[in-house]
Structures are given as structure tokens and as C-alpha cells.
């Protein structure tokens, strides 16, 4: 019986996920290379999770989310985070109207389907938390009134690597709100040559809307229907647990390198992101490779490194790969 269901589900997912190829193709017209970034944007979009991007300036982070917004036909707003930004500049405020002799609500730029929080670590905690409340609750309170944010609602925050001057690092509890943390790398030589050529010619292709926001909302409910076996669920929990109690998984050497392991949010995000990844690969069920494919992005910002690890220049990626190699694959 279950086999028949899996087959039907597989056929259904193949039909429903056809638009992901269209989206990838449309974004590929504008963004040269950066396949990894585009794929993770789609995973975040389909799994309903927000994305934190880290990379040096000039790597098409802003262009990527703008292109995604155009391809989905959603509303896009960009907020440049600066040290003097106020929470009201993000969520909106009450403004006194002399004409009506009363206060009116003026909504802020957070009221959009796609919000780019550029250089989020350049603003103080007060502003960061105003945005993070909107991300968590999908609503904003201005004065006495509460307003729901549009659906789909995706925040992509960029941060330049922390070594740079004048930054306010995001607290651990706030970083945890992001489903994925993607590290954006430099393009390859050939890709960079193409970027230079496009810029010299001044011929910038623009993305067309190939799907609607409603399609995305519908696809999200389909993504949740992707079948996940109990064995895969156990595999996900084992991976997360291995960051908390590494000695139980034969990873005693990691015990002194980890100050705290991944939270239950990591398990939830890992299962949703795996389902979204399977959906993009047009499969109705999750396999261990899906979990491994999204593991770095889901976990890298959820593991705390001890002073010892920092002294030895150990990265979270190295810890994650050791965990993945040690945990038994179902």
C-alpha cells in the first residue's frame, strides 16, 4: 500500500515541482554562476525559512534576492542597516495627520514579500530585534494595532565577515532564527570574465515573473507532504545530537571544541530543508544525501565554538563534516 502511495506522491511532486526549473533558469539569466546561492535561496523560499548570507561586498547578494523577487512577481524592499537606523525605520510608525487631526499608521519597508536586510550587523541590537520579531511572528505591531505581513515572507540578511570595523555581531539566539546560513564565495575565473563582459556591454538581462506568490504558498504545503521515513528522522536527530554529546558517537575529540551544540530548531530546519531539497530534485521522498546536502547551511551558525577551537583555527564546517562522517547513515 505504502509503495503505491509513494509512487503517486512521487508523480505529484514531479508535476508540482516543475516550476523550480523555470525559476532557476530565470535567475541564471541575471546571476552568473553562484549556483549554490540560487539553490539555497530556493530551499529557503520553499521551506519558509529566512536566510543569512555572509560574504565580502560585491558578490551579487543583493542582486540575487532582487532577481528572485522579480522571478516570483513579489514585492521587494531593501533596508540598508546603519548604526543610526531606528526600529521605526524598519517596521513603520504612527504619524500625526493635521488634516484628520489623528495619528495614522505608516508601514515600514518590512511589509514586502522579499526583504533584504543589507549588512544587518551594522545596526544595534534594538533594530536587529525589531526585524527578528517580524521574522518569527510574521506580524508587526505599530501602536495598538497588529498587522500581518504578506505571504510568502522571506528575509534575506547579509553580513560582511565580522572582522570588519563597526559591526554589532548578531546574538546566538537571533542567528538561530535563520533557517540557513550561506557563505558566498568568489566567482570562478570564467564566470568573472562573463560578469566583466556583461558590465562592459551594459546589457543587463532582467528576470521576468515566471511564477506567482500564490504558487509559492501552494508549493510550500506540497513540500511538507514530501515523505520522510522514520529512519531519516532518526538520522537527522542523531546528527544534531552528535553536536551536543559527541562522545556518544565516538567523537570524544570534539567535546572540548564545542561550547554548545545545535538547538531543536536545527532538527526542524534540517528536516524542512531536506524536504525542500528533495522537492527541487523532483523527488517525493527524502534520502540521506538530501540531509547531507543541506547540513552545512542549516548547522554552521548553530554550533558554538570553544576558545580552544578558535585557538586551533577549527571551523564549524570541519566539525559538521566529522559529525556527518561519524553518524551511521540509514
Report on the structure:
It is a single chain. The chain is of the alpha/beta class and 330 residues long. It has 2 domains: 34-189, P-loop containing nucleotide triphosphate hydrolases (Rossmann fold), CATH 3.40.50; 226-326, Helicase, Ruva Protein, domain 3. 49% of the residues lie in helices and 15% in strands. It is built from 14 helices and 11 strands. It has a 5-stranded parallel beta sheet. Strands 3-4 form a two-stranded antiparallel ribbon.
Provide the descriptors you would attach to this structure in a database record.
14 helices; 330 residues; Helicase, Ruva Protein, domain 3; 5-stranded parallel β-sheet; Rossmann fold; alpha/beta; globular
The tally of beta strands, per DSSP, is 11
Radius of gyration: 21 Å
**Low-confidence parts:** none
Number of domains: 2
Oligomer: single chain
**The CATH topology of the largest domain:** Rossmann fold
Shape: globular
**Class per helix and strand makeup:** alpha/beta
What is the level 1 CATH name of the largest domain? Alpha Beta
Strand count, sense and closure of the main sheet?
5 strands, parallel
**How much strand content do the residues show?**
5-15%
**Tally of DSSP helical segments:** 14
Q: What's the helix-strand series? A: HHHEHEHEEEHEEEHEHHHEHHEHH
Major beta sheet, strand line-up: 2-5-8-1-9
Mean pLDDT: 85
